[in-house]
Amino acid sequence: MADKKIRVMVAKPGLDGHDRGARVLARCFRDAGFEVIYTGCHQTPEQIASAAIQEDVDVVGLSCLSGAHRYLFPAVAKLLKEQGADDITVVGGGIIPEQDFQMLYDAGLKAVWVPGATLDSIVEWFRTNVQPRN
Amino acid sequence: MYFAAEVLEQSSTMRQKWEDEVRKVIAKNPDQKPRWSTVSDLEIRRLYGPEDIKDMDFANDIGYPGQYPYLRGNQPTGYRGKYWTFRMFSGMGDAKTTNQRWHLLLKEGQTGLSTAFDFPTLMGYDTDSPKARGECGKCGVAIDTLEDFMQLVDGIPMDRVTTSMTINPPATALWAMYCAAAELRGIPLTKIGGTIQNDMLKEFIAQKTLMCPPDPSVKLISDTVEFGTKHVPRWNTISISGYHIREAGSTAVQELAFTLRDGMEYVEDVLRRKGLDVDEFAPRLSFFYNSHIDFFEEIAKLRAARRIWAKAMRERYNSKDPRSWWMRFHTQTAGCSLTAQQPYNNVVRTATEALAAVLGGTQSLHTNSLDEVLCLPSDHAVQIALRTQQIIAEETGAANTIDPLAGSYFVEALTNEMEEKAWEYIHKIDEMGGMVAAIEKGFPQLEIADAAYTYQRQIDAGEKIMIGINKYVSPEATPIPLVEIDDSVELQQIERLNAVRRKRDNKAVKRALDDIKAACKKGDNVMPYCIEAVKSLASVQEICDVYREVYGEYRDPGLY
């Protein structure tokens, strides 16, 4: 089915309340024609993983600006894997120092964005790299 | 009328001539772009003149410093008696590390303290809560109990230096710790001064440190206002904040309108719930604004803010004490204007924003460090940021005279426009039944979301410029040293908390927490009970769990 829409969950793990980027992206994905679920702030990795599976999304986009991404992003990826949902693409963004990128890729994230990325480039990455699951 | 009729007549003739001239020039050399606007997308004219401010009334709209409507500032002497407070927001790792940073800043000439707490503390969780994993000390200081707090203020002259604490849902608990720490050091509550942010409405709107639903959240705030009025008279019990509204992506007008309307909501709640006279508590209300990159828009916003508040306090709430009319505020330069790319450029941005805050008449200022878009500020970066304020104060001459931009056709016209547009929002929110009702409808949240999205699209399209992001981009990253908070801080903090739990009298803790619960249920003021609870070494989370149990928890509805 060529017309199947990408189903994306934008998620805010942890206690961070900086949600400007997450909300701008949620709206941008909606305008790009994706199906969007936005969790709101303050979700635990467990809540995000189980919601992603329940909502049958293709991709989870994690946003964190508090510095806790080193724990939270890998935790979500690990939980998805443990629950047999490692075909869900996990990506992330926020205030993330470059030196942390590799550990996030090693944990299973497929892309990491930091401030300055354009909305169109992110949408383009999704269109190229995320296949709607069956 | 602000100008004599013959001046306006002269101006009109001369203007005609100038406009003809402009038409000729742009026919040959068109403007670089068709529309010129502020960072908030407010359209700006090519030129402002007498016609743009001709309807102003000098006495009611401009006046003098220290006089209604306070457009020109609160202090009759301006900055000559005292500069604004150099107050750098800081907190990192554990209490000991933050205390060292505070002493460093005081040694370097900072004149007030400002506390950044980590996310578990901000949200009312202890470091060992499963929800707090990975967050300890990362973007502020971790405080679990009074023991941590005593270490935080170690050696700080609490009777001489004022301290601001950016704390919202757990404000009662952290303020209780400050009060208890002062008492333990033999300093009476009447001698301590400072500010708790304690502004929950903007949390629902923008910053999202959330705990209980709006109504009980406002009740707890009114408790602190009442307690401060009666027992801690030098304390600002609310810092009604536009900063976070702006950082969430609002326009300058939205920041102005939502902040002032939040302030009105608090005034109305204290009047209704506590039965205090407006002049008993209004002089201690304080405000907190963002100073963004659009220089004149920010100056106009700050000037307009003072005038709107003075009018609202006098006309809407019939306050009689001039100290209730003046709006005292802290300002912070805009974190969201900084770029991770070419980070040294941030020094220039911050300096420009700081100068706007000073020309807008701020009483207190935080200047962001160049590395804050990447991590917590390093010692070196924070020193440059502090020096930026000191240079503005003591080298540039910006503090020589009061409100130097008053009377500028442009600045006065822009100030009027900001005020007019802010009142439109305020009246709209009035019609919705007030700010709590507007928040429940998602109104301010969605207005801000619209503005944030529009701005991002403008950046992506190159209609608005951020140097290093969408213009003059460098292919290579500029390496700068980054401060890292080691993950081991979390384990050490948990050990410290466990040690406190082992040594304290757990029965006394339970009694104190039960007293808070009873006060919540009866609608009594919780503050005296909070002070007793923190003295018994109850933790921040234990106190907040009482609120969650009695009042229920509020979840972010995730509007976008």
Compile the SSE list and pairings:
The complex is a heterodimer of chains A (134) and B (560).
Chain A lengths: L6 E5 L8 H12 L3 E4 L6 H10 L4 E6 L4 H14 L6 E6 L6 H6 L4 E3 L5 H11 L5
Parallel strand pairs in A: 1-2, 1-3, 3-4, 4-5
Helix pairs in contact in A: 2-3
Chain B lengths: L4 H24 L29 H5 L22 E6 L4 H13 L4 E4 L3 H5 L22 H7 L10 E3 L5 H14 L9 E3 L4 H7 L6 H18 L3 E2 L1 E4 L1 H5 L4 H23 L3 H4 L3 E7 L3 H22 L5 H4 L2 E6 L11 H15 L4 E3 L12 H16 L14 H24 L2 H7 L1 H18 L27 H16 L2 H17 L4 H9 L4 H12 L9
Parallel strand pairs in B: 1-2, 1-9, 2-3, 3-4, 4-5, 6-7, 7-8, 8-9
Helix pairs in contact in B: 3-5, 6-21, 8-10, 10-12, 10-16, 12-14, 12-16, 14-15, 20-21, 20-22
Describe the structure.
The complex is a heterodimer of chains A (134) and B (560). Chain A contains 5 helices and 5 strands; from the N terminus they run βαβαβαβαβα. Chain A has helices at 20-31, 45-54, 69-82, 101-106, 119-129, and strands spanning 7-11, 35-38, 59-64, 89-94, 111-113. A 5-stranded parallel sheet of chain A has the order 2-1-3-4-5, sandwiched between helices. In chain A, helix 2 (45-54) packs across helix 3. The termini of chain A are close together. The model of chain A has no long low-confidence stretch (mean pLDDT 95). Chain B has helices at residues 5-28, 58-62, 95-107, 119-123, 146-152, 171-184, 201-207, 214-231, 243-247, 252-274, 278-281, 295-316, 322-325, 345-359, 379-394, 409-432, 435-441, 443-460, 488-503, 506-522, 527-535, 540-551; strands at 85-90, 112-115, 163-165, 194-196, 235-236, 238-241, 285-291, 328-333, 364-366. In chain B, helix 3 (95-107) links the parallel strand 1 (85-90) and strand 2 (112-115). In chain B, helix 3 (95-107) runs parallel beside helix 5 and helix 10 (252-274) packs across helix 16 (409-432). Chain B is globular. The A-B interface holds A 14-20, 22-24, 26-28, 38-42, 44, 66-68, 70-72, 75, 95, 97-99, 114-116, 118-120 and B 119-120, 122-123, 125, 130-135, 138-139, 203, 207-210, 247-249, 336, 339-341, 373-376, 449, 452-453, 456-457, 459-460, 468-470, 477, 482, 484-485, 487, 555-560.
